[in-house]
Amino acid sequence: MLGRRKKEAGSQNEQPKACESKSIDPLRRLDLLDDEDVCVMLQGSKMVKVRSSRWQKDRIFRLLEDCVTVWCESSKTSHKAKRRQTSIRSCGRKVSGAGCGGNPQTQWWTLEVRDAVKLKKESYRAWLARGTPEAAEAYRQAKRMAAGVVSEAETRVWEEFGEAMEKDYRTASGKFWQTVRCLRRGKQLSANTVYSGGGELLASTGDIVGWWKEYFEDLLNPTDTPSVEEPEAEDSEVDSFITQAEVTEVVQQLLGGKAPGVDEIRPEYLKVLEGSWEFAQPVHMCFVDLEKAFDCVPHGILWEVLWEYGVRGLLLRAVWSLYNQSRSLVRIASCKTDLFPVHVRLRQGCPLSPVLFIVFMDRISRRSQGLEGVRFGDHRISSLIFADDVVLLAPSSLDLQHALGRFAAECEVAGIRVNTSKFEAMVLDRKKVACTLQVGGELLPQMEEFKYLGVLFTSEGRMDREIDRLISAAAAVMRSMYWSVVVKEELSWKAKLSIYQSIYVPTLTYGHELWVMTERIRSRIQEAEMSFLRRVVGRSLRDRVRSSVTREELGVQPLFLHIERGQLRWLGHLFRMPPGRLPGEVFWACPGRGPGEDPGHAGETMSLGWPGNASGSFRKSWRKCLGRGRKQCISLLQHTEISLTSDTWIRSYLRRADLNQDGKMSYDEVQHLLQMINIDLNEQYARTLFKKCDRSHDNRLDPVEIEEFCRELMRRPELDAVFRHYSSNGCVLSTLELRDFLGDQGEGATLGHAQKLIHTYEFNDWAQKNLFMTQNGFTMYMLSNENDVFNPDHTSVYQDMTRPLAHYYISSSHNTYLTKDQVTGESSTEPYIRALNQGCRCVELDCWDGDKGEPVIYHGHTLTSKVAFKEVIETIAQYAFKVSPYPLILSLENHCSVEQQAVMAQHLRSILGSALLSKPLSDQTLNQLPSPEELKGRMLVKARKLTGQLEKLGSSASFSSISDEEIGGSNKSPSKKESGKPVSSSKISPELSELVVYCRSVTFPGFDAASQRPTSEMSSFSENEALKQIKDSGNLFVRHNSRQLSRVYPSGQRLQSSNYDPQDMWNVGCQMVALNFQTPGEQMDLNRGRFLPNGRCGYVLKPDFLCQPNSNFNPENTGGGPGHIPTQLTIRVISAQQLPKINTDKRNSIVDPQVWVEIHGVSIDKARAKTHRINNNGFNPRWDCTLSFQLQVPELALVRFVVEDHDHTSKNDFVGQFTLPFNSLRTGYRHIHLLKADGSSLSPATLFIHVKVTRRGVPIKTVSERMGKV
């Protein structure tokens, strides 16, 4: 604690002082202390390593060891001598900088490094002792070996660090800051002596503690504090409880914009204001410092404030109870004081404290608020408060003086002390304006710049200095990592770029959302960016390699594109804010009266369009603040994803195609652009379009002409045709015409819904005001998620979740632990994370005996690696309910001994805790399985369970096999029984058996016997067994699955982790159709499509005819039976947009797309049809091809859209796909957002289709006719 309280020096109270300039010698300090305090002082001193030579360190260390020897001789007891000896040596290491080796902060220090360094030291000593050439050579070899070992260790650590950052650098902050601390290598600090208020040196720990007690007693118990009485609990009984409604009401009052919460304290809002101040009224600012703000909040006044805000009754008593009879003490090392009362201060570390302080400061702010403040439209902003960081705002010095006086007076009344010595003033204006602000008769200093919440503000009201500061900070980061990361040859480019993305880029682009991207700033950012990237590839400016070439080699986009996307996201956030939110109001409002504006209209709220000639200057200024090339920014703000599919997408390619970076494009550069965006225009048409846009006739397109070229390139004639079909004048859609269009789309055709769409997607002010939708607004709506082919109502949980568990399809994974194939693949916890994040609700754990009594998970009798069972359970506990709250089933394939089964049960109980279901929800007889809603947030174990007779036998009970595959007849690797050897009797642990409640695995006894067994029993089937049962006893299988769970798993012959067709199993109602999630393909596409609706929660309700125990449905014979609804599905594939290149190795390769539409359902419904191919056009191919399908059981059907690149010589290449249930398919004109093979987005690639469904008058074709078509 020595020297730790320097900030309190100079206070009115008499308190300990830390004299920074008087640092005494460590040995002299030892003489000042008595025997009891020497160890406390040495171990509590705040001393770190200092830079000095090896000779100086050895000399100081020897001096301290001599001191230890003298003190040990004079000590009274050996115990004290040992304590002193240890403490002094510790202090000596800190003073001299000597380390004991193996520092935990040295990430690369390993046993191998330690041995190598030790050998080097021993060789050095041997060389000094012998002086022979052999000893010298041995020392040189040991030195080279140690250097090599250290270098390899450092490289390995940086590689691991780069991989961690690459995987998820946003959450790897702990390792990042640990590395930064290692790079900084600490700072030089010194231990200072401590004096009392009277100037007396405090040598004893007891004296120091006493002085601090007096100081804190005076601080936390001021004499002018209002009495701390228990608040009255009116209209509340002692035995009553605080209801959720009370808490919700109070929270809404506190955070609903009345208190300075999130809406008023973000630094980005200050940057919005700053961008407005640049061309509006001058703003006078005063930065106010509150002294020990959290420590000075009187409890009595706090109860009054909460009462005013509506926090009353038991809720107020609950808050009061946290502070009632508070006590504190002072502790330094092992010495502490008596308890003393605390009547002020908020609790440190309590999550409620910031809210209480915000409410407390809000009353001060409101009581001190006058008519001053910076006007934005109908709002006046008088202050900005972030906790105890306060900024007062006013349009003039006089108004600011009045506001400051009132604020200081209110703070004094409330018991908050203001530190006037730290007050500073600033005026944001283009001109130099003096701010004569006085406090206590003294003129406050006027600053030219001030750093507030990490953002540097300058009096000119510009961000240039802040950007320069960030560029300098990024350069400092690069210098600190130069030798260890940037130019280190042992590190791969991939690892360096991961560190570049996680450290360098965030430092350089902090707060970039409202930067003004001038040419100077753009060039400086590019220079800073390329200085790092060039060094990564080992180049310099003298190599004369273009920046674009370096970026292409590294696969890095220009940094200013990242900045522009961030700006668009921020503007979109402001644009979509509901009315009443301060940032949105500031964004839309006119900031004061501009030049030439009528004073009578200064308070009107104006849009970004700034209509009218009177506000032309504001329009120009706003466009300047938004940066270059934002003529289409309003349309981009309507939808973040759409911004990537329109101008932003094409502009990123424009910059990359501009080879000489001169801002203009020649015809050759335009051809390069077309090649990059995957479109092969006819030579004549391309030249015609180029000449049409080249209005300057210089054979080069300037920025304006490039925009015109882009608009012509991005035209959607098919959308224009739809718009003109419904528009009476071809220019706009009226509300009635839009309603008619929505009616034809099969949506809610009401005027209210049409008006809502106009207000949401129409960005033209005139059209929105008169309730018209222009062609641009119509395009934005057609591209939005609201017009997606997938029903948006199905993106949340909409099905009844109170039905028995057997009535749902359950997303299930097979051999979840594997990352690749079934023979040599790696076992890891990562596949569990991926599966759970995809909504999987049944994961498999292959459990085997491991070393040291800990079970492991791997694919038995193969070469797959092993992962600890405990690690897997810990991972599952962390990610189980992040995506879906509904029950997770742990399918245990148990091959462990009884002892390790008990360990498994212990891990399950200790790690999963209350989430693990270990007993039935009810003691009543189980007639049907519980529902997902009843099992919400719980985990179920699926495994073998001891029966009543076996449970009596305990651990001696045995059975031949307890794995799912063996229960159902596995096709895995052959067992000992199959090879002629006896099967060893496997035993089951009672501890593990107790955890099996509703998912008890049993050998399938046949459908008749299973119908008499409890519903908690379930059976597993291999894919071949399941197909056989479907073919032979389809209807019985349906009835069986209406009351009991069934799990189907892939054949053991699928060594490459391929998958079977899950549709056949879903047709008979099998709930858990387990697939290899690590293998992408058509089967996994169907699985994702099946579980796409119902909020992707992993549970989808089966059709009613699959849930009835007496159902007559048979998927092999659907003629006129249950679920038979003849339906005609007509799909018109119109066009596609921005399909990516598939063969990136061939520069001139262009996609030749064709579209397949597939129907997956019962046998009679399975069909597929395709469009013709379009040669050499992946940008905007147009087919306008109609495909028709006849469905008999539509409730089971999945519709799959597949885009392929046609190839004459080999198999067509997969481009993208989208699969969804027929019941989630929307009719009308829709866009399909394509997905990659792994299920991730292929944005901005889309398909434009028209869907029509007819359910009457459809003749039924025979099975042979339908199968013949397939």
From TrEMBL:
InterPro entries: C2_dom, C2_domain_sf, DNA/RNA_pol_sf, EF-hand-dom_pair, EF_Hand_1_Ca_BS, EF_hand_dom, PH-like_dom_sf, PI-PLC_fam. The active site is at H814, H859. This is Phosphoinositide phospholipase C. GO terms for cellular component: cytoplasm; plasma membrane. Ca(2+) 3 binds at N815, E844, D846, E893. Residues 645-680, 681-716 form the EF-hand domain. It catalyses: a 1,2-diacyl-sn-glycero-3-phospho-(1D-myo-inositol-4,5-bisphosphate) + H2O = 1D-myo-inositol 1,4,5-trisphosphate + a 1,2-diacyl-sn-glycerol + H(+). GO terms for biological process: intracellular signal transduction; lipid catabolic process. Its cofactor is Ca(2+). It is an enzyme of class 3 (hydrolase). It comes from Hemibagrus guttatus. Substrate binds at K942, S1020, R1047.
